[in-house]
């Protein structure tokens, strides 16, 4: 059970959804007791040091990169997110216009994810006037501020709220909300999209195809949670199964695949911490929680660090850096438990990695051409359509022979052919008779 500090709600609840759900492995229990306070949160963030994130901050902190969080909505008033949310929208029809109101069965989920991804902490109450929050005057992330420091503390967030896990009062279907959210994120400058949600099915609705292809065409990195056994996902589900999406598996504190807070499948790209996590809650509270919902924003944060340091690097190359620098674990690389291995943020930022031309995790556009029965997907909204003339063929086909009309079959030409053949037959027979006559005279 996660420990939570927030304004008392006097309720407890277990989240479970049959179709698409937030990738949260543990129940959220709300209580008034101070189980996790702002001044001890930093010590709980073990992944910052163990996975090379603090070392990566010497190279990049995510400046200039927008990361879209498609989730239940983000409380932008949380003290650790001050100045971090640059915009947003509600796709559910039931939330706030800017995506800042929690919606669905787990309204707090989006704030948990956002703080882990781009939290900036906040000054300690005892701090003097020199305190400046997550990044001090030197521009480097310090150890002084209270609260959650995210993996990319200088990245900007776009909050896109969608309704998951229960019936949406507005009646909007998730099959429509997700593609609309992906398109909006791309059109509003997201270079990385975090999707800490998942399905118990490996398949996804056809209505999602063009939106994910649009993101691919616009060079956006999409990171998705692999799902959790504890919430019913034995195997990786969509959208983490979509070709080209970086699916994130979950680890326990010892760096071993989590029993409850992960799943398995050939689409897993990399693994990151998913147990005993710390994040912020709406209203300024904090929680201990688990799930690949928390592993995904850690990886999305690293993607933002890379895109900030190497702005000309393609999405395919960003993903390749993350998976090729991961520390291999398990039987073979990749494998269905760890993917290419365990996240190493410092290596992803600093290692000498050969450039690639194609996403090593595949292409949704190619998948559509092969698997949607040859259907040609319509041009993505806003995509550039080439009007260049087609190249002339270098070889030309000969005309197909035409059959003769029936009337021509009675003309003189066929008759002459028949008569000519008859005359030739007579000459052959005559020659044979002469040969026999001469042979008899010799005897």
UniProtKB/TrEMBL annotation:
Residues 1-38 form the signal peptide. Keywords: Hydrolase, Membrane, Protease, Serine protease, Signal, Transmembrane, Transmembrane helix. It comes from Arthrobacter silviterrae. Coiled coil: none annotated. The active site is at 71 (charge relay system), 109 (charge relay system), 293 (charge relay system). Gene3D superfamilies: Peptidase S8/S53 domain. This is S8 family serine peptidase. Pfam families: Peptidase_S8. The chain crosses the membrane at residues 416-438. The lineage of its organism: Bacteria, Bacillati, Actinomycetota, Actinomycetes, Micrococcales. Belongs to the peptidase S8 family. Residues 378-399 are annotated as: Disordered. Residues 62-341 form the Peptidase S8/S53 domain. InterPro entries: Peptidase_S8/S53_dom, Peptidase_S8/S53_dom_sf, Peptidase_S8_Asp-AS, Peptidase_S8_Ser-AS, Peptidase_S8_subtilisin-like, Peptidase_S8_subtilisin-rel.
